[in-house]
Task: structure prediction
Amino acid sequence: MTDQTEPIHRTDPHDVRVHSKLNWLRAGVLGANDGIVSVAALVVGVAAATTDVGPILIAGVASVTAGAISMGLGEYVSVSSQRDTEHAYIAKERWELETMPQQELEELAGLYRAKGLSAGTAEKVAEELTAHDALAAHLEVELRIDQEDIVNPWHAAWASAASFLAGAVLPMLAILLPPAEWRIATTFIAVIVALAITGWLSAWIGGGPKTRAMVRLVIGGTLALAVTWGIGALLGVATS
Result:
């Protein structure tokens, strides 16, 4: 029983800030996975078409640079929108508390009744929380927002770009360091191992089945590499 319930308690936090940190960690793992697969697929495709290091290096560096910028920019835009929405909700809730405090108190009590508290207990809890910090109480129960832990788009952008770069380092080293005849095989092996690890980490963080996550990532990554390798090989033969 302990083995079955332990992962649930570990990945089902009761604190909003812990939940936020787990989300960032999960995003970092996924960003690294993107770096691994996208860069590996590109350099393997180029390596299948030519054994010259120059084109492989240029393609790899371009892919890493473009991918990191794209990941960072995309995360910045996405989190900025989320941040704007959270600020709008906070402003709206603050206005409602200032203009209609009694209705807000009744609403808060109703929310606690919906959670299973008796009417008397719900009213008492609502009154005490309102006296302590009415805005924080409403944000937590209604919107699951912690006003002290609003998302930062710059942190998200840098974390996303950095995780992509971290993942991209592996296929770059795997394709550039070995002799020409071992480049593609080495990259395939390195990517499969790395995807298995990231699949295990993502499942561990999310509390899901580890084997399924690992197999899913490995199959998807292997297919991506196989397709780009095939395209590169065909183009290499056509231009030779």
